[in-house]
Amino acid sequence: MESSAPRTAVVWRVLRDELARAARPLNALDVGGGTGGFAVPLAQAGHTVTVVDASPDSLAALTRRAAEAGVGERVTAVQGDGDGLADLIAPQSVDLVLCHSLLEVVDDPHKVVAALAGTLRPGGAASVVVANRAAAVLARAIGGHLAAASLLVASSDGRGDARDRLRRRYDAQSATALLDACGLAVEQVHGVRVVADLVPGTVAESEPEALAAFELALAGTPPYRDIATQLHLLARRT
User: Fold this and answer.
1) What are phi and psi of 60, to 5 degrees?
2) Whose CA is closest to 192, among 3, 1, 28, 20?
3) Which of 10, 18, 165, 226 could be cross-linked to 219 through a Cys-Cys bond (beta carbons 3.0 to 4.6 Å apart)?
4) Are 75 and 103 in contact (CB under 8 A)?
5) pTM above 0.85, yes or no
6) What is the pLDDT of residues 4-18, one digit of tens each?
C-alpha cells in the first residue's frame, strides 16, 4: 500500500503507521480526494473509503479506477464541498479522514476543519496536507521574483498577488493552531517534498528509492521540514 514515490512517501509512511496502530479495517473519508490517489490504495488494503469531491469528472474517474482495481464495493463517491460535510457524512462515523491540499483554496478553512473533526469518532485521526509558506517564498526568490517573494513574506495569510491560485499558506505553527482550535490535537508534523521539487528531474527518474529515503530522513527534522513544499500533520480527535 505504501507508495515509494518521493513526493508522497512521507504521507504514506505516516498513514501506514496509523493503520497498523488500528489493526482493523477502518472507515475512511477523503475530502477533496479527486480521482482516488489515496482512496484506492486504502481500499486495496481492506479499508472502506468515502471520497467527497466537488468535481463530477474526478469522481467518475475515481469510480472507474476503483472498479479496475477490484475495490469498487469499498469506495463510495460523493459530490460535495468540504464545508458541507455535516450534510453528507454522519457525525462521529469515521475512523480516519484525509484532507490533502484543500485548506489552501476553500472559503473558510476553520469551518472545513471543524466539519472534518465532526465526522471523526473520538480517537479518530486526521491526515492534513497544506501548502508551506516558507517554500513558496524561497521558490520565488530563487527564481528571481524578489517582489513576489517579499509580498508572500508580508502577507498575513501567505497569499501572493491576485494571480495566486492559492488563497493562503501555512507554517507548522499556524496549521497546528487551526487544527487545535477545532478539537484536533496534532501529534506529528512532517515536511512533504523537502528536496523532491529541488533536485534535477533526472535524479527523481534514476534514483527514486534513494530520493524517497532521503525525503523520509529529513521529513521530521527542522529546519529541513520547515522548508518543504508542503506540511503533513497527523492529528487526533480528543
Assistant:
1) -65, -40
2) 3
3) 10
4) no
5) yes
6) 688 999 999 999 999
Amino acid at 141: A
Taking the C-alpha atoms of residue 110 and residue 161, their distance in angstroms, rounded to an integer, is 23
The CA distance from 191 to 135, in Å, is 10
> Per the structure block, which three cell numbers stand in for 93?
462515523
Mean pLDDT computed over every residue of the chain: 95
Q: Is the pLDDT of residue 1 over 80?
A: no
Domain 9-132+170-237 has CATH 3.40.50.2300: no
Residues 101 and 230 sit within 8 Å (Cβ to Cβ): yes
Q: What is the bridge-based pairing of β-strands 94-100 and 120-131?
A: parallel
